[in-house]
Structure formats: C-alpha cells, structure tokens
C-alpha cells in the first residue's frame, strides 16, 4: 500500500481488510515483527493487565497513580468507544492522527508480507510509539484471553489478572478453569503476578507455581476496605487510610495500587495515592450522560460485569424506578447477563445492534420473557433510550448497558458526558 498522504481513516479501513479473521489468537505472526520493531523488551517499567472484567479500570488507576507520582506514562487499551485515538494515551493525552499514522507506517515497513489482524497491527503500532516516547511506565491491556494475545509479546515487570469469569467462549473455553489457564499466561517466572479477586481459580494458582511467579492475591497481599472516613487501601506493609472514594470500583483501585507498588523503584506517597483516587476515570463505566432524567451508561456485557453493575445500582439507590436500555451482541451470554439485573430493574427497553456480531431486539426480549420479565423492543439504542425517557418520571433513572457498541451509540448521540460516578 502506498501510504503517502494516507489519513488515519484510510489506514484503519486498510488494516481491517488485511486479515481474513478479525480475531486470530497466536504470537507466531507478531513475534518477528515485534522483534524487528524492537518492542519486545521496552526500556520502560511495564505492567500487563488481563482479566475478564476490570481491565480498563485498573489501567485508568495505574495511569493516575503514575502521573500523581510524577512519572510519565503510556497506556494502551481496547476496544475504543467512539474514536480509535482512545486506545493510545501518551502521558495523559490521546495520540494524534499524525502520531498514529507514523506508527502504522513503521509497522507496515517492518511486517513485510506477513498478514496481521487489525488488533495486532494496532498493538504493534502502540508499542512502537511507547518505545520512542521512553515513558517511565507503560500500561498494556490484554485484548482477549492472555497467553495468545498479541499484547503478551511484551516482557513485563508486573502482570495483573483482574478477574476470571465466562466470556468469549468461542476462543477461551466454556469453563472458569479453561479461561483461567489462558489468562494466567501473562504471568512471568520470578516476576510479581497479581490476581485481583478473592476467589482464585486453581489453574491460575497452579500455573503461577509451575513457572515460579510471585503470586500476590487480593485479600492476602493487598486489599481494600470501605470505612466511615473513606477508602482504605493496603499493599504489603503499607496502608493508606481516609482516601477519597474513586469513581471506579475500589477493588480495582486495590489491584492497581498493588501492581504499581510492585514496579521497580516505586516509592508510594500518601498524597499521590489520594490524588490518583480523585482523578482516575474511565468512559463507559457507570458514567452519567445528559438527559431529561438521571441516565447512566455502562459497558457491562457478561454475567460478572452485570453483577457489579447491579451492586453499583444498589449502592446508589434512587427515589423512583430503574429503567434499563439494553442491547447485546449475539455471541454473548445474553440470558446469564440479564439475569444478574432482574432484581434491579423495573422496566426493560430492548434494542437491536447491527453488524456481523449484532442481534435483533427479539433475542434479549425472549430471554427476559423466560424470566417472567416484560419488555418493549426497539430498532436501535437511541430509539430505545428515547422511549425510556418518555416513560420515565423525574425521580426515576435510566441505565444503558450491554456492549461497548451500546454505550458508544448513547455517547455519540449525547456528547459531553461526565465520567464521574453519580
């Protein structure tokens, strides 16, 4: 491809067409390109973040912790909600079109005739940017699974698996044990290997032991408690009391703090930890958007994430009803996800999602009917949201969830949203 004067949109469209599969797990194709680019061993301190849920929140906390401690930081996450630039953060700002295009050109030159998926191409481009930016800390979010994910090509100083639950069955397996084994693949021998949940799957524990990783667990080596004066976080022998409650889940704050503290040469400061709790935020996680009634959006799209959303709704009750707008992809556990919120929702507005992985509104509606729940069906997210607002009273609230695409549709229609937890 001649990339003279190619725009970012040109590159993204071209990248999507280069590999016959959108997802093709395995490191063989990317390893040679990564070595040619010199991005396997970055000069920065590196944290790998994997898991079923909570990855984005932990990345946001890690970024906030680095900046509060006066360190430069690069962050790579996926997927994006509205714009590709969201995937690559360069010391607190989004990468520009020009920076992304330059990185894509470098990957194209290095790959030769090797086909790369869209994700692999973008991952290598982000790593190339981080290499040339020489950040103090680099935070990398695993895209899918762990062991065979392109991000796992990098050698980390610390690896964090946030949670393990059923998701992406077609690629990772049908059981917690199978999925845990895949996610544990980001651990490294002799390096800190953190797990951010209290229920530890045996394959994850066993893999850490087999390779000699330094396994550190939520509730054992680090943790959190809510108190009358605020949040308490602890990691090792250090504890931080009366912290401000963050806009993201405290359990993820604890995991991120422990991962940050495990990096070489880090000395935690209480005032910096407090600042990170105040500033860490992430689009699409219990995020408020403008509307005639209180409206929240959340990317929850699997049973575990839906349980967390239900907990957040319970922890922030409203005087009226909770109306849910939901649209999900067809390859997700629709029934299992919706079941987690049946007791938290008073009225359902179900929308369809377009695209190859999308589904009509009828499938979620049928799942709700099987649980004794009525619903109305709508062609798209915006139409469903408008219907929910039309029915809502001032004291009610509306929650929009089910997919990154669902949240993207709501945010694109209602720009200028706040990431702060209501």
SSE diagram, text form:
Layout: H1 8-16, H2 28-37, E1 45-50, H3 55-68, E2 73-76, E3 88-90, E4 93-94, H4 97-111, H5 118-133, E5 137-141, E6 158-161, H6 169-172, H7 176-183, E7 192-195, H8 202-211, E8 214-217, E9 222-227, E10 230-235, E11 238-243, H9 250-261, H10 270-279, E12 287-289, E13 294-298, H11 303-315, E14 322-326, H12 334-339, E15 347-351, H13 362-370, E16 376-378, H14 381-391, E17 397-401, H15 404-413
Parallel strand pairs: 1-5, 1-6, 2-5, 6-7, 7-8, 13-17, 14-15, 14-17, 15-16
Antiparallel strand pairs: 2-3, 3-4, 9-10, 10-11, 12-13
Helix pairs in contact: 2-4, 3-9, 3-10, 4-5, 7-8
Number of helices: 15
Low-confidence stretches: none
Briefly note the CATH topology name of the largest domain. UDP-N-acetylmuramoyl-L-alanine:D-glutamate ligase
Radius of gyration: 21 Å
Going by CATH, the architecture of the largest domain would be 3-Layer(aba) Sandwich
CATH H-level superfamily title of the largest domain: Mur-like, catalytic domain
> How many β strands by DSSP?
17
Strand order, sheet with most strands: 4-3-2-5-1-6-7-8
Name the overall outline.
Answer: globular
Mean pLDDT value: 92
């Amino acid at each position: 491809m001649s990339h003279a004067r190619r725009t970012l949109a040109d590159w993204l469209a071209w990248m999507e067409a280069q590999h016959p599969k959108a997802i093709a797990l395995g490191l063989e194709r990317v390893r040679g390109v990564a070595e040619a680019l010199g991005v396997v061993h970055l000069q920065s301190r590196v944290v790998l973040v994997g898991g079923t849920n909570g990855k984005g929140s932990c990345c946001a906390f890690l970024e906030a912790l680095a900046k509060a401690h006066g360190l430069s930081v690069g962050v790579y996450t996926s997927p994006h909600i509205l714009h590709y630039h969201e995937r690559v953060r360069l010391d607190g700002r989004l990468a520009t079109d020009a920076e992304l295009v330059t990185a894509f050109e470098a990957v194209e030159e290095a790959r030769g005739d090797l086909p790369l998926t869209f994700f692999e191409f973008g991952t290598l481009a982000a790593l190339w940017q981080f290499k040339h930016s020489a950040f103090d800390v680099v935070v990398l979010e695993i895209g899918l699974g762990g062991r065979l994910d392109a991000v796992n090509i990098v050698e980390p100083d610390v690896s964090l698996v946030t949670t393990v639950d059923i998701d992406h069955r077609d690629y990772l397996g049908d059981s917690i044990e199978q999925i845990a084994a895949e996610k544990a693949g980001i651990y490294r021998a002799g390096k800190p290997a953190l797990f951010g949940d209290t229920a530890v799957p045996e394959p994850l524990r066993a893999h850490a032991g087999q390779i000699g990783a330094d396994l550190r667990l939520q509730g054992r080596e680090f943790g959190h408690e809510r108190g009358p004066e605020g949040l308490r976080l602890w990691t090792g022998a250090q504890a931080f009391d009366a912290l401000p409650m963050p806009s993201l889940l405290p359990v993820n704050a604890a995991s991120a703090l422990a991962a940050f503290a495990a990096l070489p040469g880090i000395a935690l400061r209480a005032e910096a930890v407090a600042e990170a709790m105040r500033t860490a935020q992430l689009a699409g996680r219990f995020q408020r958007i403008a509307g005639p009634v209180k409206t929240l959006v959340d990317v929850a799209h699997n049973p575990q994430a839906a349980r967390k959303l239900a907990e957040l709704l319970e922890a922030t009750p409203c005087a009226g009803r909770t109306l849910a707008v939901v649209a999900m992809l067809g390859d997700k556990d629709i029934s299992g996800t919706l079941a987690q919120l049946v007791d938290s929702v008073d009225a359902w507005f179900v929308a369809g999602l377009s695209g190859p992985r999308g589904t009509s509104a009828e499938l979620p509606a049928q799942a709700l009917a099987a649980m004794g729940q009525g619903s109305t069906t709508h062609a798209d997210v915006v139409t469903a949201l408008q219907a929910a607002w039309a029915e809502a009273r001032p004291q009610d609230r509306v929650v929009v969830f089910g997919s990154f695409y669902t949240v993207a549709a709501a945010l694109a229609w209602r720009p200028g949203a706040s990431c702060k937890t209501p």
